[in-house]
Design brief:
homodimer; alpha/beta; Rossmann fold; 7-stranded mixed beta sheet; elongated
């Protein structure tokens, strides 16, 4: 809270957690290398870029002269390129440089940023072209070996609880919500999500639950409070664990919920239930075997589990800019790759639900709240950070709307165990119940 | 129907559709090689077999002398081996020979056949041992190239509609039913299954549906009658297609449903919906690419589909006896292998439901009905066939109860299409509805 007061008092934060070169000299037009007129070659390059994008209804506006329109002369959104270097960087490596240039202000978007990215995704399709595959070698994702995982997680989740409090719900759930009705508010939808997970798992009082990757602890506390289970929850983020522990104490749940600052690979013991929400995408596919071994090891003959993770329909790396600047080491697995975790663990998949559009709805809420707080974010981390995070949220929203990303909820149980729900009707039996739960 | 009258008048059928040597000389004890006393070596072998099975509560009873009990002296079921050769065949290749010997009467089971097989499955676990893997090379599954597929399908499905009418429901649905309540009857559960498939697919009047593998046509007719769609349904079985066409004419649905006697690879054209119930397990994993190509080809930008198939949690061949005698060319895919069909087809998985215990319940109904008609079956095809099919039904029931086999229902839609159900609540909104549909 101390940080927040400093921020609000107007003191400029100097940290630059993303490592993007700020190039603030771009903004006033006061650069030494003030760009000259746009050559014919450069106009040709701009036209070629629009064609390569599949002629979306976008205008490319160079630093001087007329905008370049698509073949149909449409332009619902305008992309301003502020200098010659920005054009060449974007032409060379668009997947990475769009984010860099947008963040440091050398590329600006006039119009709806989400619709722009959606239009680009729609034009590209989901399968990666040869150039994107080659460039993904240049931007090799960070590893998730034990030491690096810690750094990766700190990079994102230790930006300070005050930052996340600006745009997440009150309980700080930083994963896809579940909206029984699309019009539901974010607070209720996050409670409905936790409730639905507990119902899918059919939690019984007295059972033991291990949570791999617990964020700020809301689900662990919800399970213990509303379903009477004991929970041990693991997380690498120091800031999140400290917050979760304090909440457990304040709510008198610390005898039934314990939070451990450690990697999922450190989990020992046997439990009735394993739950992992929003973590598999940080495991990285080279470590799926370790995750499979964990599941097999910590679930007994009647064990059951639940994975909620961002995924994809087609195997390929995350956008390199997102991986580099926002989520180091992240990889969204396909359902096929998720099965490669559960099959060797001896698990039987009972239920898979794709909540892609619920994640888009969640991100609409987050982005709205983020925009409403953008001045505070700028005061905390500077304009480059604010633009980078706006782009990340807008890009994620576009990715879920367009089907680039999926959200899979997978319920599983030890192969051959017949103590399973007869059907899914009970999940929907009382329409009001997911939102009737005690509120935080 | 002519066949049925002959059967009921007591005329013995001479055909032997399974190809198992009947060895009817075993039954009266009038064999030339009347087996001598059981040697110490043979008793040791029987004990070793029980141990290898994990000491289930089973007694092995040799052709003479005392039964062999497990280490705890329990025996809820007794397996009688009628001669020395039966013992050695069973010891050498149990996975295949159990079925052969049971069918031709050289091995008899006293007690609950289903519980016996469940106990053996439980003792073995799901992962194949080295011997089973080696023996699976000996019993290489039949191919599913175009010509062979036709033979494979004739082998099973062209046994005559009268045979299947003895133990299936009135509409001849030969796939897992859906029981909203476990106590529901088979007739209602098969209607509930068809209805649930149509609801998951959100069928709209006027849409076009292609069905790959349509059995006796019940689902195609149900869709056209109750959801106002047009259906073209493919099947390799001549007997089934003839029956389905006649039903369509009788019900006045032949303008909206057409049945084609052809392989799924012959499907052409583009449709709103593709549905395939109980066919993927006959496609064979070497042909999944062709099935993927079919899905991609016949579903447009807004196409959606549904696969209902027997699967497994762990990759491995079907029991070799079932593959050889009952379902030539069949292979139960894992969910991971099913994803390998949908991913290259550009599909997004929306929903997966595992109905394993519903298939066990379905098989309980089928087995009860089969046992009630066993004398008619014997009159149709002889005692070897009757015992083989009893074993197949009992073994399948045990396989679903024990988790050897799974039943996956997978709903999918073209990647990126947002015209999808917001949640699954509507599937369960009116609890009565799956059983309130017009009856056949």
């Amino acid at each position: 809270m101390a940080d927040m007061r400093e921020m609000r008092s107007g003191k400029q934060a100097v940290c630059n957690p993303l490592g993007i070169s700020a190039r603030s000299d771009c903004f006033g037009g006061a650069r030494a290398d003030y760009p000259g007129p746009v050559s014919l070659l450069e106009r040709g390059l701009l036209k070629a870029m629009l064609r390569a994008l599949g002629n979306p209804p976008v205008a490319l506006v160079p630093w001087r002269g007329e905008p370049i329109l698509n073949a149909r002369g449409e332009a619902r959104v305008r992309i301003h390129l502020r200098d010659r270097g920005a054009l060449f960087l974007l032409a060379l490596d668009p997947e990475f440089q769009f984010g860099e240039l947008y963040s440091n202000g050398r590329l600006e978007v006039e119009g709806d940023l989400v619709r722009l990215i959606e239009a680009i995704f729609a034009a590209q399709g989901i399968r990666q072209g040869m150039r994107a595959r080659l460039l993904s070698l240049v931007h090799a994702p960070r590893s998730n070996l034990l030491g690096q995982s810690t750094r990766n997680i700190h990079h994102h989740y230790d930006l300070g609880n005050d930052f996340y409090r600006l745009w997440l719900d009150r309980q700080l759930l930083y994963t896809c919500a579940y909206f029984p009705q699309p019009s539901l508010g974010l607070e209720e939808a996050q409670i409905a999500k936790m409730d639905m997970i507990c119902r899918k798992l059919h939690l019984q009082p007295g059972e033991s639950v291990v949570e791999a990757g617990c964020g700020w602890g809301a689900l662990a506390l919800h399970m213990a409070r509303n379903f009477g289970v004991r929970v041990i929850a693991y997380n690498l983020s120091r800031a999140q664990v400290a917050y979760a522990r304090q909440r457990a104490r304040e709510e008198g749940l610390d005898s039934r919920v314990s939070f451990v600052e450690a990697d999922y690979r450190a989990i020992r013991g046997e439990y009735d239930v394993l739950v992992s929400v929003g973590m598999l995408e940080h495991v990285g596919r080279h470590h799926f075997k370790e995750f499979a071994a964990l599941i097999d090891r910590c679930l007994g003959r009647h064990g059951r589990g639940f994975i909620h993770a961002i995924g994809a329909d087609y195997a390929g790396p995350l956008n390199p800019w997102i991986e580099q600047r926002i989520f180091p080491g992240a990889y969204p697995p396909t359902l096929r790759e998720m099965m490669a975790v559960l099959e060797p663990a001896g698990m039987s998949v009972l239920d898979v639900e794709n909540l892609r559009l619920h994640y888009a709805r969640t991100l609409e809420h987050w982005l709205d709240r983020f925009e409403a707080s953008r001045e505070i974010v700028e005061a905390m981390f500077g304009p480059t950070f604010m633009r980078a995070w706006r782009l990340y949220l807008a890009g994620s929203l576009a990715a879920f709307r367009s089907g680039r990303l999926q959200l899979f909820q997978v319920l599983f149980q030890r192969n051959g165990d017949n103590d399973i729900a007869w059907s899914r009707a009970h999940l929907y039996a009382d329409k009001e119940s997911p939102c009737n739960m005690p509120k935080f």
